[in-house]
Amino acid sequence: MEVIHSPDDARRYVWSLRSQGRTVGLVPTMGALHEGHLSLVKAAGTCDSTVATIFVNPTQFRPDEDLDKYPRSLDEDLEQLKNAGVKAVFVPDQERMYPEGFSSYVEPPEVAKPLEGICRPGHFRGVTTVVLKLLQAIPASHAYFGKKDYQQWRVIEAMVRDLNVGTKIIGCPTLRESDGLALSSRNRYLDPEQRRRALLLSKALSKTEAEFRAGETQIEELQQCMRRTLLGLDNAAAATVGSEHGSTPIQGMDKIDYAAIVAADTLTTLSSLDRPAVAVIAGYIGKTRLIDNRELNIS
Ligand code: AMP
Fold first, then answer.
1. What are phi and psi of 53, to 5 degrees?
2. How far is it between the farthest Cα atoms of the chain?
């Protein structure tokens, strides 16, 4: 497996494959890899070659966020990618991505405005900028993004469409632990009690989806159902994530940033459930911010 540090070397590498008519799948990551990332690598396996990137992008973190604390494990990450069959990994350093005098940013599309756009102003500007830079260095035929970061996937889709980038964007399903918790690099910050409470996100989504399948179509009712579960007020759900020693109900999430049902394409508020929708949650367990979502397909 090649480890490439410079954008020019990366572009040469990818063009040599593409000029032979080969497809190249790109998997961008910030490292601290887990099975969720590896599921994207697996999806990219339908391409002739897979290229991954590892770069903790400073421009998508706000000053009060966890950039310095963000987990880094480069050696293990490279080992995992090699074992997963990745052909090349692009690991640029800060100076190569943001050299002195850097001042051009990508204005994010409309779909970046709600939800995370409100809670994390400036975040998607950093994401669109770095992803466009990665796509310039690695002009892949396909790029794979997790629906775990649902809004991010939609933002990248829109940016690539709006700016005529020739890479096809593929959204991949969220990989979960056996109990339902969505895999995330940030889960390692959770202590055992917080880890149990983190299950409330997937419980809330499952409960809401079940109510939807059972015929509930009132968005406000479904959102209330999500919030009740997240706050630990739904006794049945709370009991299933209770203490190890019994079913003592637990405290809910410490802060809910949003728990909403929105249009699956624009992520804007819906007045009725008459088109594909997605239930989205973001909030804190202790100091750790977690997000999760579930698509609600209208049949
Ligand atoms: P990150 O390293 O957190 O920036 O994530 C890199 C890519 O992996 C993004 O496209 C994420 O959406 C995706 N990803 C993260 N967690 C998961 C997961 N549990 N299942 C599927 N994809 C994921």
1. -125, 145
2. 62
User: How buried is residue 128: exposed, middle or buried, by Cβ count under 10 Å (0-12/13-18/19+)?
Assistant: buried
Ligand 1 neighbour 257 (Cβ under 6 A): no
pLDDT, tens only, 101-146:
999 999 999 999 999 999 999 999 999 999 999 999 999 999 999 9
Can you name the CATH fold of 185-296?
Pantoate--beta-alanine Ligase; Chain: A,domain 2 (3.30.1300)
Instruction: Give me the active site residues, please.
Output: 37
Nearest atom in ligand 1 to 144's CA: 10
Pocket lining: 289 vs ligand 1, CB cutoff 6 Å: no
Q: Which residue has the CA at smallest separation from atom 10 of ligand 1?
A: 145
pLDDT digits (tens, 9 = 90+) for 230-248: 999 887 777 777 655 555 5
What's the 159 CA to ligand 1 centre distance in angstroms?
A: 18
Q: Is the minimum distance from the CB of 123 to ligand 1 under 6 angstroms? A: no
Q: What percent of the chain has pLDDT over 70?
A: 97
- 39 within ligand 1 shell (Cβ under 6 A): yes
CATH code for the part of the protein at 2-172? 3.40.50.620
Instruction: Say yes or no: CB of residue 154 within 6 Å of ligand 1.
Output: no
Beta strand spans in 83-160 (E): 88-90, 142-146
The pTM score is 0.96
| Domain limits, the chain | 2-172, 185-296
Whether the Cβ atoms of residue 266 and residue 110 lie closer than 8 Å to each other: yes
Between the CA of 162 and the centroid of ligand 1 the distance, in Å, is: 23
Nearest 10 degrees: Cα torsion 111, 112, 115, 119: -170
- Among 149, 162, 166, 176, smallest CA distance to 267 is for 149
